[in-house]
């Protein structure tokens, strides 16, 4: 690839699996060259492709007690996938990160340290990726950090950073809030309105980025996490509370309103067909009562926990007041899967509480057998998603509306009227649902909304040189202290981990000697063009096969092939006559040029259709050849193909080269008569001439068709002309066939 590209690799080690992400962006110095004023004010343009992403299961935390196996037994397929796409000459300049989230946070600290240490050693031993600091590149990140990275990714893709004027939500606000929910934890990140930001300044994070022209940009963001509030952990807590709700331990069957009607499972969610015979085993029996499910999951929010720093949302944790007039949230991961999986309607864009809750009630009240009959047996996970859907929906509704306080669109107050946004921006946002208080998304403009993208945006921004060499404001994030507001880097500041020193930059001005901007540009687009070609290759192959079948069908009969051949032969002969000119020494070169393409087409047609009987060709030697130079005559053989060439002067100095040997092959021209062969060597003039034996020879500067009466004399005989030694003497009577 060209030198203009930078690459980055990041592994998201979650609770249920690890996903590899590869990102690419343009080198900052190259991006500045020829950029418009608007482009210079933007962040680096990060790109990725679906094929660059790969996921494996289970979660990396399963190797907590066998850390030495995590590299070769677990990570190797992901690393091999990355090596397939990162250019070899870019390896040493490509950073690699593995950042573990909630699944690893649940492990003891000693197991976390053993895993991260072994992962770093493995990557350093087996790859050449840039990994200068194990602690910075391989780590278990806090939930707050994960939420902040997600906030960066969402606003980067929505345009809140690059085009603030198009995203004015009122009160000087132009960014979007971010909600994420996985299997073990949930995060929230948003920029409070100006009043709340001033009131809770010490609770915010100071985030600093840098645009292409080196200008620093700052944002003050609140972010927090709720460990144990992911859907899987919440389900475990729910089942425990369900057991505790029955006063006796002798119960072996528990009604579960959060399961579809008549579905039977074990406590861990395994479907059972018959009541278990094992003593003490407990079976959950679905009742499909969704309203009751909502009531039983509500206590898990921890709204009754004491709040030490008002206001609080979930589990007694402090969160600044959310102004939903200006704070519009996008939700990813489980927010998307739970609203658009089993219950998603065709064409759904915005989240509507009333519509969503009705769909959930209708689904969960059905008998399990009816639900199961509609599942796709080829998709193994469909049954699992269906059995968990009712609980997940109730948990999401409680977290969104009773926990975080998102207005119930369709029932409660929605988007504030009179938003200060341009007409074009508001129409675009309405189409995506981003002017609502909440909207679940999976991707924006074709790119997945993942917190890993936020980390890579931060890293790429750190590679941009600051304006005038002023590095007092580094890229990264830390506490929003008074010192930070004054331009001093806080002590807990987490740097982007990148520098703005050029890596492999060719310099120069795009000339051939400077390393080649042209080469870089070609390399940067070659893969994209190849991908587009591959996308069309399947259709092209089907089209080719269809055309081939049609041709085979049409030419399956010999008479059709013969007719087509005759027409092509007539066309070739007329083309030669019209393009070859008259005979004679001066026009010999021209004639040879004209006949070259024609004879090539004749060979092709003879291969496809075979030569019809009664037609034979004789090549007569042209004027200007030395009488002592001979060339073997034309043969009807696929092994004797050659092409004609000329010096371009139209004279007799053109030469003939054989394809098989690459050398000119001497040729003698003979005509067969009843009394034997007539040798026809060339002479220096036109008309006729006598050779030493007194034979009459004719010379012509064009090819002519041998009369059918003469060609019949040659019937059944084929000359083998693979070697000039076959012709022992120009006076030999005939060619012998084997």
UniProtKB/TrEMBL annotation:
Q: Which organism is it from?
A: Bombardia bombarda
Which keywords fit this entry according to its UniProt record?
ATP-binding, Hydrolase, Membrane, Nucleotide-binding, Transmembrane, Transmembrane helix
Q: Where is this region: Disordered?
A: 575-599, 636-663, 679-698, 708-738
Protein name as annotated: Nucleoside phosphatase family-domain-containing protein
Does this entry carry the keyword Transmembrane helix? yes
GO annotation, biological process:
CTP metabolic process; UDP catabolic process
Entry's family note: Belongs to the GDA1/CD39 NTPase family.
Which CDD domains would you find in this protein's record? Answer: ASKHA_NBD_YND1-like
Name the residue ranges with Gly residues bias. Answer: 578-599
The annotated active site, in chain numbering, is 146 (proton acceptor)
């Amino acid at each position: 690839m060209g030198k203009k590209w930078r690459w980055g690799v990041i592994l998201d080690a979650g609770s249920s699996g690890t996903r590899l992400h590869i990102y690419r962006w343009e080198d900052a110095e190259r991006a500045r060259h020829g950029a418009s004023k608007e482009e210079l004010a933007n962040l680096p343009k990060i790109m990725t492709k679906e094929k660059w992403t790969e996921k494996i299961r289970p979660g990396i935390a399963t190797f907590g007690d066998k850390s030495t196996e995590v590299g070769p037994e677990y990570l190797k397929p992901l690393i091999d996938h990355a090596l397939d796409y990162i250019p070899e000459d870019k390896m040493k300049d490509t950073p690699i990160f593995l950042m573990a989230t909630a699944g690893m946070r649940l492990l003891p600290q000693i197991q976390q340290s053993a895993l991260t240490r072994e992962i770093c050693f493995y990557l350093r031993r087996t790859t050449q990726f840039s990994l200068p600091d194990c602690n910075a590149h391989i780590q278990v990140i806090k939930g707050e950090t994960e939420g902040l990275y997600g906030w960066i990714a969402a606003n980067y893709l929505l345009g809140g950073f690059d085009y603030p004027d198009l995203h004015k939500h009122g009160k000087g606000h132009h960014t979007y809030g971010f909600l994420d929910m996985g299997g073990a934890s949930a995060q929230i990140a948003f920029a409070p309105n100006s009043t709340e930001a001033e009131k809770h300044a010490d609770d915010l994070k100071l985030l600093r980025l840098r645009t292409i022209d080196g200008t620093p940009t700052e944002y003050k963001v609140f972010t927090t996490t709720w460990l144990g509030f992911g859907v899987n952990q919440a389900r475990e807590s729910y089942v425990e509370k369900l057991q505790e709700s029955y006063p006796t331990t002798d119960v072996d069957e528990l009604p579960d309103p959060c399961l579809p009607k008549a579905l039977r499972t074990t406590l861990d969610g395994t479907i059972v067909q018959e009541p278990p015979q094992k003593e003490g085993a407990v079976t959950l029996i679905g009742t499909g009562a969704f309203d009751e499910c909502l009531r039983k999951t509500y206590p898990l929010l921890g709204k009754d926990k004491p709040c030490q720093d008002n206001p609080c949302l979930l589990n007694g944790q402090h969160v600044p007041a959310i102004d939903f007039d200006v704070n519009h949230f996008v939700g990813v991961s489980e927010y998307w899967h739970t609203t658009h999986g089993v219950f998603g309607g065709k064409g759904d864009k915005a989240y509507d509480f009333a519509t969503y809750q009705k769909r959930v009630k209708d689904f969960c009240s059905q008998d399990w057998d009816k639900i199961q009959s509609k599942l796709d047996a080829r998709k193994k996970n469909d049954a699992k998603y269906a059995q968990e859907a009712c609980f997940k929906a109730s948990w999401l509704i409680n977290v969104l509306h009773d926990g975080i306080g998102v207005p119930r669109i369709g029932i409660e107050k929605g988007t504030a009227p009179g938003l200060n946004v341009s007409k074009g921006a508001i129409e675009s946002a309405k189409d995506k649902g981003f002017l609502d208080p909440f909207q679940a998304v999976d991707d924006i403009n074709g790119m997945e909304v993942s917190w890993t993208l936020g980390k890579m945006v931060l890293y790429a921004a750190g590679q941009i040189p600051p304006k005038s060499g002023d590095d007092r404001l580094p890229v990264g994030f830390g506490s929003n202290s008074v010192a930070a507001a004054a331009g001093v880097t806080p002590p807990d500041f987490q740097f982007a981990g990148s520098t703005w020193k050029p890596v492999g930059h060719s310099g120069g001005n795009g000339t051939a000697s400077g390393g080649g901007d042209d080469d870089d540009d070609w390399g940067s687009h070659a893969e994209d063009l190849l991908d587009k070609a591959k996308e069309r290759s399947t259709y092209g192959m089907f089209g080719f096969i269809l055309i081939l079948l049609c041709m085979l069908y049409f030419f399956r009969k010999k008479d059709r092939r013969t007719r087509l051949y005759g027409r092509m032969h007539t066309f070739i002969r007329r083309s030669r006559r019209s393009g070859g000119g008259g005979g004679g020494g001066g026009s010999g070169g021209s004639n040879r040029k004209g006949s070259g393409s024609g004879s090539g087409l004749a060979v092709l047609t003879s291969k496809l259709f075979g030569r019809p009987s009664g037609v034979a060709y004789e090549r007569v030697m042209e004027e200007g050849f030395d009488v002592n130079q001979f060339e073997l005559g034309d043969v009807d053989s696929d092994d004797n193909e050659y092409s004609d060439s000329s010096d371009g002067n139209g004279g007799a100095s053109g030469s003939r080269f054989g394809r098989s040997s690459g050398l000119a092959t001497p040729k003698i021209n003979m005509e067969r008569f009843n009394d034997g062969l007539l040798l026809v060597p060339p002479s220096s003039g036109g008309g006729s001439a006598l050779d030493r034996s007194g034979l009459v020879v004719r010379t012509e500067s064009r090819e002519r068709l041998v009369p059918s009466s003469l060609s019949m004399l040659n019937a059944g005989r084929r000359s083998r002309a693979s070697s000039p030694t076959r012709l022992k003497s120009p006076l030999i009577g005939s060619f012998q066939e084997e």
